[in-house]
Amino acid sequence: MPQNLNVVEIKAFIPAKDFELSKRFYTDIGFTKASDGEGVAYFHCGNSAFLVVDRFEEGSDKPEMHLLVEDVDDWHQKMQERGIASRYNVEIGSIKQQPWRMREFDLFDPSGVRWRVAMNTD
Fold first, then answer.
1. CA 50 to the chain's CA centroid
2. Cβ partners under 8 Å of residue 24, min gap 6
3. Which of 96, 90, 98, 70 is nearest to 3 (CA)?
């Protein structure tokens, strides 16, 4: 059965000590805020984008990444078929519908970097 593993976009999560201040800062330096809700604000300029998140952990050195795909179910299925969780001793979460109109699952790499693999639902 063919699977749709096309990637739409990849972007970083930027932690914010002061969420409201960070959103104003990124708007003032020229980024467009495309959405904002549930502690996540999406910014873009041209073909570049990132997410500002309302959390900050002192001393955290692990980035968090967002992978926007065309079909999150196919990506999740492929991770299961390849036995990624047991092969690399990593965690793969279940697919969840999020209030920001995305279905997504968490995938942690061997270094603990969190990837949110998601697709738009509208």
1. 9
2. none
3. 70
pLDDT in tens, the chain (122 residues): 679 999 999 999 888 889 999 999 999 988 999 999 999 999 998 888 999 999 877 766 677 889 999 999 999 999 999 999 998 999 999 999 999 899 999 999 887 888 999 999 98
Cα–Cα distance for residue pair 105/76, rounded to 1 Å: 8
Classify domain 7-120 at the CATH class level.
alpha beta
Report CA 17 to chain centroid distance, whole Å: 19
Query: Could you give the CA distance from residue 21 to residue 114 in angstroms, rounded to a whole number?
Result: 25
The two three-digit tokens of residue 107, written as one number: 């995938």
Q: Rounded distance, CA 78 to CA 71, Å?
A: 11
Q: Is 83 left (phi over 0), alpha (psi -120 to 50) or beta?
A: left
Q: Rounded to 5 degrees, what angle do the CA atoms 26, 30, 36 make?
A: 45
